[in-house]
TrEMBL record:
This is Saccharopine dehydrogenase (NAD+, L-lysine-forming). The lineage of its organism: Bacteria, Pseudomonadati, Pseudomonadota, Alphaproteobacteria, Sphingomonadales. Gene3D superfamilies: Dihydrodipicolinate Reductase, domain 2, NAD(P)-binding Rossmann-like Domain. The keyword Oxidoreductase applies. GO terms for molecular function: saccharopine dehydrogenase (NAD+, L-lysine-forming) activity. Its EC number is 1.5.1.7. It holds the Pfam family Sacchrp_dh_NADP. The keyword Oxidoreductase applies. Residues 4-137 form the Saccharopine dehydrogenase NADP binding domain. Residues 141-390 form the Saccharopine dehydrogenase-like C-terminal domain. Keywords: Oxidoreductase.
Length: 403
C-alpha cells in the first residue's frame, strides 16, 4: 500500500523494519538508510531470511539536510520514520519539509551540547508542517509512545479526569554483563544522570538525580527498586491532560548499574563537554560509549521480562467516584530475540514505531501540523499493540498508589 523510509539501523530500527516487513499489506516498499550502510545491509539480510521481503538500503548522514532531502526525493516515500538519534530530529524534519514527506519519531530533540530534551524545538515546526500539508508525529515508541496512549485510552474509556499518573518502567532483563545499557549508552546515561523532574501543582518540580527510590513488586518480574526521573512524555502529558495534579516517571535500576554509574560519574566519564587528551578533543561520554557493549549485541544473552505501564487515579467515567487503574504490557526478552534478533527494549520501541507508522501510512491518523501521540484516537493503536506482539492488560486497583 505504501512506501516508507526508515532512518537509523540500531536495535529500534531493526525491530521496526522487521515488523514492517511482516505487515507488507501496509508497508509494501521498505527503504532503510543510516550512517553505516553495512548495518542496514545486515538488517536487510535478516528481514529477507525471516520474511522473504526485500529492503533497499542506503548510507546517509541525517545531519546533512541537502543530501537527506535529495535521498527522500529520490525514493519518494509517503513517510520518513526517524529511528536515528534525538540529535537528528530537526534536520530530518527539515529534509521532510523540503522533500514533501510525512515525519515520525520516537524521541524528542536534544541538542548535543546540553542534556536537555524538550519538545519546544519540534513544536516550533507547527506552522511549517501545517503550511506544507504534512503530518509530523512525535514520540511513537514505548515511553514516550505507548505510555501516553495508555493514559489517553484510560481517559477515553475509564476515567473522566486523571488526577494522578505514575508511569512505571521495569526492565527485569539480565544480560550477564557487569555494566551495559540496553539502548544507546550515550542517550541512556544522559537521561539517567539528569536531575529528576515531575509534574505537580501545575509546574515541574526538580529533585536530584536518582534521589527518590521506591521498591515495587512487578508482575512476572518480582520486586525491584525503581527511581523517579524525568522522562519526555511528562511534558506532553501535562500539556494534553491539563487536569493532572501530579505525574511522575519511575524506572528500575539494579544495584550494580547504580554502583557503576556512580563511579563513572564521580570520575568524570559521563561529562559531555570536550576535554583535551594527547592534543585531541574528546567527549568523555562518547568515549565511554565506544568501550561499552553495543546494545544490539546484548540480545543473544538477555533473559527475563520488561513490564511497563501506567497507574492512573481519577474520577470514574461512569460516575462511581474515584478509581485507580493499572494498564501495562509485559514482554519477554528471549521471545523478542527469537522473532526479530533484538532484545525487548528495542522490541518495545520498534513495534510502536511500526504501529505509529501504520497509522499514518493508512491515514488512520492524519492532519497537517506537528502532533504528539496524545492528540490522536488511542483505539486503533491499542488494537494493533494486541495484534503485533505487545498485548496489554488493564486492572482496577484498590486505591491510589501509596508511594
Ligand atoms: P542505536 O544507537 O542502536 O541506533 C541509532 C542508529 O542511528 C545507528 O544505526 C546510527 O548509525 C544511526 N545514526 C546516528 N547518527 C546518525 C546520523 N547522523 N545519520 C544517520 N544515521 C545516524 O539506538 P537505538 O536503536 O537504541 O535507538 C534509536 C532511537 O530510539 C533513539 O533516538 C532513542 O532515543 C530512541 N528510543 C526511544 C525509546 C522510546 O521508548 N520512546 C526507547 C529506546 C530508544 P551508526 O551505527 O553508524 O552509529
Amino acid at each position: 500500500m505504501g512506501k516508507v523510509l526508515v532512518i537509523g539501523a540500531g536495535g529500534v530500527g531493526s525491530v521496526a523494519v522487521h515488523k514492517m516487513a511482516m505487515n507488507a499489506d501496509i508497508f509494501s516498499d521498505i527503504h532503510l538508510a543510516s550512517r553505516t550502510k553495512s548495518k542496514c545491509d545486515a538488517i536487510a539480510v535478516s528481514v529477507k531470511e525471516r520474511t522473504g521481503v526485500d529492503v533497499a538500503t542506503y548510507a546517509i548522514d541525517a545531519e546533512d539536510v541537502p543530501a537527506l532531502a535529495a535521498l527522500i526525493k529520490q525514493i519518494g516515500p509517503k513517510l520518513v520514520v526517524n529511528l536515528a538519534l534525538p540529535y537528528q530530529d530537526l534536520t530530518i524534519m527539515d529534509a521532510c519539509l523540503i522533500a514533501g514527506a510525512h515525519y515520525m519519531d520516537t524521541a524528542n530533540y536534544e541538542p548535543k551540547d546540553v542534556a536537555k530534551f524538550e519538545y519546544h524545538w519540534q513544536w516550533a515546526y507547527q506552522d511549517r508542517f501545517k503550511e506544507a500539508g504534512l503530518t509530523a508525529l512525535l514520540g511513537s515508541g514505548f515511553d514516550p509512545g505507548v505510555t501516553s496512549v495508555f493514559a489517553m485510552w484510560l481517559k477515553k474509556h475509564k476515567l473522566k479526569t486523571i488526577r494522578q499518573l505514575d508511569i512505571l518502567d521495569c526492565n527485569g532483563g539480565d544480560h550477564g554483563q557487569a555494566f551495559a545499557t540496553n539502548f544507546n549508552p550515550e542517550i541512556n546515561i544522559r537521561e539517567v544522570t539528569a536531575p529528576a523532574r515531575h509534574w505537580e501543582g501545575g509546574q515541574f518540580v526538580e529533585t536530584p538525580a536518582m534521589a527518590n527510590k521506591v521498591q515495587f513488586d512487578f508482575a512476572e518480574v518480582g520486586p525491584k527498586n525503581m527511581y523517579m526521573m524525568y522522562h519526555e512524555e511528562l511534558e506532553s502529558l501535562a500539556k494534553f491532560l491539563p487536569e493532572l495534579e501530579r505525574a511522575r516517571f519511575w524506572m528500575t535500576f539494579g544495584d550494580e548499574y547504580i554502583k557503576h554509574l556512580t563511579v563513572l560519574q564521580n570520575v568524570g566519564m559521563t561529562r559531555i563537554d570536550p576535554v583535551i587528551y594527547n592534543g585531541v578533543e574528546i567527549i568523555p561520554l562518547q568515549f565511554l560509549k565506544a568501550v561499552l557493549p553495543e546494545p544490539s549485541t546484548l540480545g543473544a544473552t538477555t533473559k527475563g521480562k520488561t513490564n511497563i505501564g501506567d497507574i492512573a487515579t481519577g474520577e470514574a467515567l461512569d460516575g462511581s467516584g474515584e478509581k485507580t487503574f493499572y494498564i501495562k504490557n509485559i514482554c519477554d526478552h528471549e521471545e523478542c530475540y527469537a522473532e526479530t534478533g533484538n532484545q525487548a527494549v528495542s522490541y518495545t520501541t520498534g513495534v510502536p514505531a511500526m504501529i505509529g507508522a501504520a497509522m499514518i501510512m493508512q491515514d488512520v491518523w492524519s492532519g497537517a501540523g506537528v502532533f504528539n501521540i496524545e492528540q490522536f484516537d488511542p483505539d486503533p493503536f491499542m488494537d494493533m499493540l494486541n495484534k503485533h506482539g505487545l498485548p496489554w492488560s488493564v486492572e482496577e486497583l484498590e486505591g491510589p498508589v501509596a508511594f
